[in-house]
């Protein structure tokens, strides 16, 4: 179980995916400060976006000075099992959405899929 008010995010840019944990009361600016050393992008160069809830899969720009909870994130929408996705756009890239899918892991070996029956 996650600690109270912890929110889990997967920040995406190109083929990089950063997993970060913040509190509901923290701001988008706090998220940028956490991402800066991980991504090696300047926080001034970054704009952060969340996925639209519409079917068109647009991204909505997040305001730096607004708390994560006021941006609609809560423990149900940003859990350890299903982190909220955040898009990192760089000013130098313009309006380009630069995200590559991560590869799918190989299937689990048969021995790990179901418990083995003990031999008598």
Keywords:
120 residues; alpha+beta; five-stranded mixed sheet
Largest sheet: 5 strands, mixed
* Distance between the ends: 37 Å
Provide the CATH architecture.
Roll
The overall strand count is 5
SS field, number of helical segments:
2
Q: Give me the strand/helix succession.
A: EEHEEEH
CATH class: Alpha Beta
Give the domain tally: 1
General shape: globular
Structural class: alpha+beta
Name the average pLDDT: 84
CATH T-level fold name: Ubiquitin-like (UB roll)
Radius of gyration: 18 Å
Region (Disordered): 101-120
GO cellular component, one term: elongin complex
InterPro entries: ELOB, Ubiquitin-like_domsf
Organism: Strongyloides stercoralis (Threadworm)
Describe the structure.
InterPro entries: ELOB (IPR039049), Ubiquitin-like_domsf (IPR029071). One of its GO terms (biological process) is transcription elongation by RNA polymerase II. Residues 101-120 are annotated as: Disordered. It comes from Strongyloides stercoralis (Threadworm). This is Transcription elongation factor B polypeptide 2. The structure is a single chain. With 120 residues, the protein is of the alpha+beta class. It has one domain: Ubiquitin-like (UB roll), CATH 3.10.20.90. Helices cover 13% and strands 27% of the residues. The protein has 2 helices and 5 strands. Strands 2-1-5-3-4 form a 5-stranded mixed beta sheet, with helices on one face. A hairpin with a 7-residue loop joins strand 3 (46-51) and strand 4. The chain is globular and about 50 Å long. It starts with 5 loop residues before the first strand and ends in a 7-residue tail after the last helix.
